[in-house]
Amino acid sequence: MAKYVNKEALAEVIYQELKISRKDAGHAVERIFQEMSLALASDGEVDISGFGKFIIFNRKERMGINPVTKERMKIQATKLPKFKPSQTLKNLCNKK
């Protein structure tokens, strides 16, 4: 079965490996994700060596179709995070 990782699972690993309290491990994980989110929200980048890079991608304004009314509509430009995995992560996923 594939391994499932979420914030709680990460905090548990930190708790076990670093021998700190579960509460402190949870705060550490939460703070890491908060800092990553703040960097991306300010059009920054998150580059984690050996894992990958998160960047902000600017999606242009475009025309779309409302699936209910079939009416053409303008979809506003948006910013969204994009992930580019490192070669190390790609190799690990492909067992190279």
From TrEMBL:
One of its GO terms (biological process) is chromosome condensation. InterPro entries: Hist_DNA-bd, Histone-like_DNA-bd_CS, IHF-like_DNA-bd_dom_sf. GO terms for molecular function: DNA binding; structural constituent of chromatin. The keyword DNA-binding applies. The lineage of its organism: Bacteria, Bacillati, Bacillota, Erysipelotrichia, Erysipelotrichales. PROSITE patterns: HISTONE_LIKE (PS00045). The gene is hupB_2. The keyword DNA-binding applies. CDD domains: HU (cd13831). It comes from the Bacteria. Keywords: DNA condensation, DNA-binding. This is DNA-binding protein HU 1. It comes from Faecalicoccus pleomorphus. Belongs to the bacterial histone-like protein family. Signal peptide: none annotated.
